Amino acid sequence: MRVAIVTESFPPVFNGVANSVVRVLETLKAEGHEAIVIAPTTPGKYFNGFRTYRVPSLPLFQFQLGLPNPLVSKILDDFKPDVVHAASPVLLGAQAVAWADRNQVPAVAIFQTDIAAYTERYGFKLLRPLVDRAMANFHAGATINLAPTTEVRDYLIRLGLSNVEVWGRGVDLELFHPNRKNSAAVTELRNRFAPNGQKIVGFVGRLAAEKQVDRFSELFSVPNTTFVIVGDGPERANLEQKFRGADVHFVGKQSGDELANHYAGFDAFVHFGTEETFGQTIQEAQAAGVPVIAPAAGGPKFLIDSGASGYLVDPTIKNGFTPVLTELLSSEELLSRIGEGGRRKVLDKSWAANNAKLLEFYASAMEMTKQPSLSELLVA
Prior knowledge:
The chain is α/β, with parallel strands linked by helices. The protein has two domains: 2-170 and 350-377, Rossmann fold; 178-346, Rossmann fold (3-Layer(aba) Sandwich), CATH 3.40.50.2000. The chain is built from 14 helices and 16 strands. The chain has helices at 16-30, 70-79, 91-102, 115-121, 128-140, 150-158, 184-193, 236-242, 256-265, 280-287, 321-329, 332-346, 351-368, 374-377; strands at 2-7, 34-39, 46-47, 50-54, 57-60, 63-66, 83-87, 107-110, 144-147, 164-166, 199-204, 225-230, 248-252, 268-270, 292-295, 311-313. Helix 10 (280-287) links the parallel strand 14 and strand 15. The longest helix has 18 residues, at 351-368. It is globular. The two termini are 34 Å apart.
């Protein structure tokens, strides 16, 4: 199978969209499929053995917005894909979906970024209906549209889209594993961040306004705690200023074993953002056996069974997270039970299992666009 992946984010930029594309490429390589990548950013001409093509882009909020380009159609014409994979399509992805529609090539479009919600957060609430309509247009020509949760699926259907299915995200169950908790590397991290035996409360993610990391100040009254913020982004300087004098450690972006070790060093993971379409870092914390506290909004609602695999809190209640965190950290039995529950919640969500479902969607899209044979057209 020949797969053309057209994505709005790709390394060296790393976010949920880019990470999922990288994982899809790993699966395609393991299964012996051919692929190319078209994106606003690329680390070079090849990534993991696959040819990559970089297109011009402009910044939009914290994203690089890929711009439509005649070169995209030429690349697709030359590659002759069996299926087009549009990852979080905006202008660039919409061009690829339109190309697929014109050429009777199946297209699978994956909704991953709620641009309309970002429009509201950044002060353009009146533009929300226009952005909703634009997102519907970007996805309209796809053979199959994939949503991360049933809530997002219903939103896309309300926008008028058809053939919408649910496809979540996988998680690396070997990299993020409770066994790391007793490793020398994690012990060293804990000694550095909590030399007096404090409980470590962590966050992993991009430091942008929509993540609402500034609300961590609500938790500073919880006794015997220290806070570790993993990630980088446009809000980092503001957050460092806001949290000055508090027991907070900013460690920047981490990846691979270093990221996994930081998760394993947390006693609890807290996420305040209410605009997540999914919440990949929540799954990573769960895989690591770390109890999660998150808002009862967006993607987290579909990742956490409150009281069993984490806690969901009403995000509209100021300081509502504080008593939940206080109770959690006060009981080793509770920490252990909720952490184990989170791990169980994701045991069936390996990237291999997740991407096997994606390949099934590819096959379904190909079947839906298959041209009938002459014998099928003739009436006996």
